Prior knowledge:
The protein is an alpha/beta fold. It has helices at about 5-15, 20-25, 30-45, 60-85, 100-105, 105-115, 130-140, 200-210, 225-235, 245-250, 280-295, and strands spanning about 50, 55-60, 90-100, 120-125, 145, 155-165, 165-170, 190-195, 215-220, 240, 255-260, 265-275.
Amino acid sequence: MITMRQLEALRAVIENHTVTEAAKIMRLSQPAISKLISNLEFETKLTLFLRDRRRLDPTPEALILYEQSLRIFDGLSEITRVSSDLRNLRGGRLNIFSLPALGKSILPKMLAAFTQEHDQARVGLHVHSSRTVLQAVVSRRVDMGLSMIGTDHPGVDCRGLCRVNAVCALPLGHRLASREAIDAEDLDGESFISFGQDARARELIDLAFEERGVVRQLRVETHISESACAIVANGSGVALVDPFTAGEFARHGEIFVRPFTTEIPYEFCLLTPREQPLSLLAQSFIAALEAELPRYAMVSY
């Protein structure tokens, strides 16, 4: 079997013209170099050098092998470089599925900073519903998923990332904008943007108002906080949404955001395929996620 050491000897002899110089380059004895060349000739069944006194003249066949070996050495150099990038977290691949509340507001900002630090990394961000995120993790199509649906699926590791309370999104100039916080009773008779009947948040929000006998005008229904905030920004009503999405709209001066006194929790989970080790790059991103998410949840009122 041809070995890398034999090819190294071939390269050294061709580039340095003598066994003596090749031995110096490879830090071997001259007999060791001669043996490597002889073994390579035996393995290839080719005459690779013509002996002319102290010189070894490569045959055309040797030169062809030499050209091929250069590709191998270049490949090894590239593997060494990639290994270094992976080890130092500069390179690698990361594929993320996220629900809209994070994928359309927070994650693009975080990934911009992350990819600057890890400048050889390739990152994919795909925004889907929490159910689709879960399906992608179960099928191992992603490195991680961010969802509002926890799971006990045997193929998924699920851990909580953060728990935040819903906030009240108000149109600019709304009568309640001067309040420090909004109670359920404050929204009696208000035009209200609701989530779809199948949304978990819808059930919790409806219950909070029903328990207090508050009647809202349910004019518009949507499925994601981003759409609800956009509708609020156009003056069509108020909504209870997650603070990440509301914060983005508030920072752009499109809506007012106030705390809502009744606890309506939004729980965000990190989903990863079970028994599939996380890459060093994925571990680094998760650490950044856990550190940064609480800061983004702090909406400036």
